[in-house]
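Risk register update: the risk of archive-format incompatibility is retired. Evidence:
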Amino acid sequence: MALKKAQRKQEEGGLTITSMMDMMTIILVFLLKSYSTDDISVAASDDLVLPVSTTMVKPQLAVNLVVTRSIVVVDGVEVLRLTEEADEENPGDMIVAVPEDEKKGQLITRLYDRLLEKAEDAKQLAEMTGSEDHEFKGRILLQCDKNLPFSVIREVMYTAGQAQFSEFRFVVYQGGT
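Archived output:
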């Protein structure tokens, strides 16, 4: 008498993808966590040449203030035009300046009004959401042409400070040493 071999029941073979799905989920989570975007857009313009720096600090979300050799822009909206005046220190040369009729002392009135509006909007948003992420921090991203006279930058910074913006972040091109 011959002994029968025990035979297992043959089940239809199927592809088990559970472990592969686990692996793909882990990879997806890793990529999402490591992916970052910068919310900064540098206005490409002939009037704007940013300085170069070796900084490694990532930009943060804030009001975007761009000062070129001809205009001042807040969050993509033109606020005022700059003029060229004769340079008193270097006769025969021209220098970029804020028009006198736009200023009260060092305060640039139209820029002040626009920035104050932005500050109030940010405060209202923070109040409505109740979130610390949307809390008004008085942060401003300043993109200034590297050839602007310091007097213009000083007046812009003074005006921003009067409009409740006290934390300045200068946008620069990242360069090597």
